[in-house]
Task: structure prediction
Amino acid sequence: MLKLADYKTDEKSWWCPGCGDFGVLAALQRALFNLGKPPHEVALIAGIGCSGKIGNYINCYNMHVTHGRALPTATGVKLANRSLTVIAAGGDGDGYAIGMGHFLHALRRNPDITYIVMDNHVYGLTKGQISPTSDLGFSTKASPQKNIERPVKPLQLALAAGATFVAQGFSSDVKQLTRLIEEGIKHKGFAFINAISPCVTFNRVNTYDFYRQSLVNIEELPGYDPRDRSWAIRTVIEHNELVTGLIFQSDEPSYEAQIPGYREEPITEANWEISPEQFEEVLAQFR
Amino acid sequence: MLKLADYKTDEKSWWCPGCGDFGVLAALQRALFNLGKPPHEVALIAGIGCSGKIGNYINCYNMHVTHGRALPTATGVKLANRSLTVIAAGGDGDGYAIGMGHFLHALRRNPDITYIVMDNHVYGLTKGQISPTSDLGFSTKASPQKNIERPVKPLQLALAAGATFVAQGFSSDVKQLTRLIEEGIKHKGFAFINAISPCVTFNRVNTYDFYRQSLVNIEELPGYDPRDRSWAIRTVIEHNELVTGLIFQSDEPSYEAQIPGYREEPITEANWEISPEQFEEVLAQFR
Amino acid sequence: MQNLISWKIGGEQGQGIDSSGDLFATVCNRLGYYVYGYKEFSSRIKGGHSNYKIRVGVEPVASTSDDLHILVAIDQETIDRNHHELVPGGFVVADTAIGAKLPEGRGARLLEVPMTEIANEVGNPRVKNVVSLGVTAYLLGLPVEAFADLLSRTYGRHGKEVVAQNEAALQRGYAYALEHVLETPWKLAPSDGKPKLLMIGNEAVGLGALVAGCRVMSAYPITPASEIMEWLQREFPKVGGVVVQCEDEIAAITMAIGAGSAGARAMTATAGPGLSLMQEAIGLAHAAEIPVVIVDCQRGGPSTGMPTKHEQSDVLAALYGTHGDSPRIALAPSSAEEAFYDTVLAFNLADRYQCPVFVMMDLSLSLNKQTVPELDLSKVTIDRGLIADQEMLESSKGEGFRRYKVTESGISPRSLPGQPHGQFLATGVEHNEFGKVSEDPKNRTAMMDKRLRKVSQLKLDGLRYQGPEAPEALDVLLVGFGSTAGPIDVARRTLEESGIKCGHAHVRVLAPFPAEELTALMKRAKLTLVVENNATGQLAKLIKLFVGDVIRAELAAAPGKAVSDPLVRMESLLKYDGRPFLPREIVSKVQEVISHAKAG
Amino acid sequence: MQNLISWKIGGEQGQGIDSSGDLFATVCNRLGYYVYGYKEFSSRIKGGHSNYKIRVGVEPVASTSDDLHILVAIDQETIDRNHHELVPGGFVVADTAIGAKLPEGRGARLLEVPMTEIANEVGNPRVKNVVSLGVTAYLLGLPVEAFADLLSRTYGRHGKEVVAQNEAALQRGYAYALEHVLETPWKLAPSDGKPKLLMIGNEAVGLGALVAGCRVMSAYPITPASEIMEWLQREFPKVGGVVVQCEDEIAAITMAIGAGSAGARAMTATAGPGLSLMQEAIGLAHAAEIPVVIVDCQRGGPSTGMPTKHEQSDVLAALYGTHGDSPRIALAPSSAEEAFYDTVLAFNLADRYQCPVFVMMDLSLSLNKQTVPELDLSKVTIDRGLIADQEMLESSKGEGFRRYKVTESGISPRSLPGQPHGQFLATGVEHNEFGKVSEDPKNRTAMMDKRLRKVSQLKLDGLRYQGPEAPEALDVLLVGFGSTAGPIDVARRTLEESGIKCGHAHVRVLAPFPAEELTALMKRAKLTLVVENNATGQLAKLIKLFVGDVIRAELAAAPGKAVSDPLVRMESLLKYDGRPFLPREIVSKVQEVISHAKAG
Ligand SMILES: Cc1ncc(C[n+]2csc(CCOP(=O)(O)OP(=O)(O)O)c2C)c(N)n1
Ligand SMILES: Cc1ncc(C[n+]2csc(CCOP(=O)(O)OP(=O)(O)O)c2C)c(N)n1
Ligand code: SF4
Ligand code: SF4
Ligand SMILES: [Mg+2]
Ligand SMILES: [Mg+2]
Result:
């Protein structure tokens, strides 16, 4: 019998007390448990950052890759073994700065992966520089100049890039975030979840309090239909991205579903040997 | 007296006869001429691709950088000498595949640069692979598998990324394209122009004929207001990006206008020497 | 009757030069001859002079040649640029329509053929080049039916009429030559008639990957590597594999690493600029001990350099380009045949040593069509290396699986996602045996040593030698890697014929470097000449380092004895103008250094 | 009275270890002492043991020390981890509240101070560490007012009350020590009293860039390089410069290249992972001949490795990491002072040689606070190299400007955007003199040679030697680069005191390598020991290559003569556990190799 404890490790946490990432970790563990995914059938690919350390605290197959490259790596894992539940995770710097290109291409490629960005509007691990989602005017000790670059809007970008699943959660609402992650994992395609996850050490602006006061649950908007892309775009713009819940979902075929000749059986389990007959058939083109 | 011929070089063209890039080149030369920008005050930074060879045929300060990096390089040129007219150019692969991250970050950074993408929905120089804007199902000799990745929508992405100037032209309508480039150069901020530029050698789908039949001039839509972002988004989605004209423009301060302590006088012309007094002032923090 | 002839067709890019050359090469190959093709083209799509030279012989040939017997000229530029290669008695086959002029003094003969006229007469202006193939068939004494056969196979899908036009053009060309050329000195001797394959090196790599069990290939297009992706896109659907054309090279390598870590056999292929972009991720694969095969098709560098020109200048970047200490395994095939087997080997090494493995190609090897003897599938085995079995994993249940167990060999059994109880953290951060991040100094040293040990213990058959056998002394030892094998081999034979005792050591494994083997050969030689296509002597640097280490160890072990250092008698022949070596360039350099050594 | 003492404070990250250490170091520096600080921290934000050791002397010190005189322990872990460094008679200053236990047998003394209690009494629990500074002042015999001064300057902006609380804590600590410690053997001798600067190497780089005229800095945050960007963000607004925190390192380097090509002085700064990502663009700057300065702050590799740990393992990646042939200029400062002047030099070299220039830092050098003697602004000049003047450009009017003119030096005058008639194409593709793409083999060779020539002709003062002067023979020559200078220097003195003739050659320029100078020194030595912080001996590899070349040239020039090869008598001392060398590690290795050599 699976227990929630099965997803935990005995690694001491390297996160600061109060860090939003704890909530995201808890939600992910709970979502996997609720869905009954055994740890050995889950692969978590994380980037570099405080957020990227999530793999230290969850018992499953973990990868901790180079900064910004969680998504292409996760895609490779999925392609190799499509029976795995593949989760990618990382920070706002990891995903929206150095990883921006991969993010947009994963969205349009639509592999069956769940991508959780732990968005704290700051570079935590490198001690508090501005990040692509930092507010205009934001500054810190490590970034003494006020931010003059308009923040990336992950939800709008994802919608424009052809996302088939867009959600936003808040790390202190573990219940909602758990559900969103569950939905994301169940989604047959690329599920993007921006998880607002405050950095209590370097971000004095985008705090728990700030979010508690400003976040709106999109699912409570009267009649909101997450299947309506233009409604989603409109709402996200209107609320300046400060919404939580399932924002958009559509049923487009996943990448794996469309690869020519790709099989139900995972590549890792297939017989790779080529018979002499097959070989001869291939060689014909060279004769 | 400036002549249009001043913008030409005697370099033999390496492009195929009929290539769309000829029209883009002509429009750019004409726009510069119309605006009276002398060749030595223009810097053109191009990526790698057939499109990237544009710098061979235009007389100005040219850079031909690594694949996908025209935008950060152009930003560096502009920051060093803000009195230059800085143009960045490249292909759809250059800009939307390997250069995607830089594209989106340039958009939000908003430096005073004009960026022209010569979009032929294919990789020309490497002999015809699919590109990020290739249609679903598109295939070629070099990419024998049908494309299963949903195409990038450059206009929607730009709008979602906070673009302050978005236009689309068609290389066979040199007149309109010239005007759009002129507007882009005049725009104080990042001007993004997607120039549809058919590849006659490797793309048998997105041909001149196809575009002639499907493109709609957005400026002719009744009452269309390029200052209205949500209208722009709506229209671009509705027409599946097949519009030409000035799609959106807003007046937000350029990057250079906001850099703390940045001066009107170009850095390249400033006196870089530090006086002993200044030096002593700086050293105080180390005492 | 000739054992070896050279044929070339030239014209503007886009004028069917490629397809005519390919046709000719294929016919010769099917007739049992050994073929080696060499294309000269530029980084543009249409226009610009391009030519395609094909060497045909009754014995293996793996080099383009110094001379030329038949030149098919589609335009005057082709004559102007290429006539100097012609041997006395050679033919220039030119379309009457171009009013060709042949410069004096070559002793070659201009054969004007109304190619355009014939093509128009048979009703298809595009079959112009086929006329020249008919002429060629006659001049070389090859059966014109072999050409007809191939033409009908090639153009079959265009319909009967097109096939008929092609056949007519061919026969008219043959007839014209028969009528106008009384005798031809260039008739080819009969071939051994054995069945052969004709392919470019990149196809051989694809084929190797296919049979090695590679099923995930992620790459980004780049000259001269794209054909690998293209070929696998055609073949993988039949075996359930996937090719992803990524957004860039960083995505390509990390996707392959992801697939490798999940247990598939995965690869990427690129050229210099892509290699440079992959450097960070290569370090990740090394540090996290993930198998992945990286094919680097070298071209003219640095930077964008000369994308369509041959060079061998990525060696140091492949071996030392990522930050930190990260020793490599790098194979360097020198023919399409070796490229096939080496690719298989690369996958086995990647799995056995759990690390990135390079297959270093070069443009000539990647793109030149060459004859490959029958490939032996029974020589192909798939060795997955150490993978933990369920028993091992069960027994680790309490404490967790020690994925990075410090072992004597440095290799630790790995678990694959999906295996119960095998969970661990694969990371590029320094980690302990479980993969958990660790900054402990002792652990760090142990982990570094473990990773270094893996490769340092590896012994591969890293050198191929041809020439006089020991203990005979050598006047000169030629050393090279990659596609220089062909020209060096031709040069060596030429030199031997002129009485020079000449050996040829070809480095087949760049890392770990076959230092002992090479040292032994260098000691036998009065002079060593390192022949490579780059400007700074990258192979020579490796020799200085690793042969140097061997020599110094010997000196240190026998302080009194006079060990003479063969590195002192080593010189370099470097060519970096974008062209591969011609055998005669090597021959004259050897003659020069030998006479210099005698004089000095 | 002591000429040299070591002090350390330890506790959990986030417990004010850094600020207390900085305060102590600053006071000592202001009092005219030479200070060297060494922080041990991990790649996490809060929690985990961290400590800060500061060496204080009346003469320059540039190394952390083997021993420890005073340990301020905020928790028991600090004692457990660090007590072994304590000298007999050393003090452990611990908060009474932690109930410290001092292991037996060190001969050190536990001084329990009610730090928490005092802090609470003065009304601010956060001033706990300040109490220990008061104790420290007493123990070292330093004027407590100097501490009070600095505290009021530091906390002034927090208001009078905070300042008063800090001062009270300080005085109470001092008083407590005065009362409970009868005599202290660790009183510092008077300093030379000269004014000094205290900074980390990264600040020195920033300062160098500022005075060298750098006005564009583009980078991406990474440990241990971020402070350069941070510091310049504070200073550039005053001089009209711009710092861009880019989306990644590729943007950072290409933005700097863009700025460099437009005529600004531009730089980027990064660590290993960023260096790997920049490899492609570095080749572009080389091929298009664009000046740019790249600072690489080395840390534990490969891959993400040990981000907060010291290492010197990016040498080969910096020199050979981009594809193609692309020789480098790379400086390696060994102190903050040198980092300042070298950064200035780097900008001048980049402009003079029109190419990328590396400043190779390492984590210890980047982050350790150290005393810097007064910096001499008059030694700073800005040399822009060859820039075409208007006359030259006018005269090129007809044919266009030959930006890449093939010259004897390899350097060609460049035009800058904005200059009339100076238009050209700057490209990473092989080009002709005008910058236009060219595939001509002759042009290619000429252009490669031109670029190689530039660097090969460069002569820099690439070595710093300390030790017995020629013609005296050396028992051992120690060779290092970067921040190993300090520990090697201390080791050399210790060895000399024990009668061993010891020289120290510190490589200041990694490329072009100072081979002749080093060869001469190595020849004088019975043994050479290369001391470096990496696992594969990267500096040793350079020595083998380039000193080897010198020796082989000598051997070739005098075939009969017995030239003994000093490379045979070379050994390596490698440390790659994330910690810098302690002097005693070097000393014992030298003793070992010497006795081994005698025995052997
Ligand atoms: C190539 C590379 N560049 C830079 C770094 C340094 N680095 C580590 S984490 C990080 C950013 C952290 O920010 P984010 O992704 O938002 O994660 P957070 O720490 O906030 O969770 C950076 C720049 C790196 N490890 N690799
Ligand atoms: C790092 C790198 N990767 C790959 C290439 C090869 N390459 C050259 S151009 C090009 C793409 C061309 O497509 P696009 O940008 O659309 O330009 P087009 O030729 O269609 O104008 C590629 C992949 C390269 N030069 N550098
Ligand atoms: S620094 Fe911020 S993001 Fe990092 S662990 Fe601490 S609170 Fe979390
Ligand atoms: S290949 Fe296509 S894009 Fe390139 S020059 Fe030819 S037509 Fe233009
Ligand atoms: Mg963050
Ligand atoms: Mg294109």
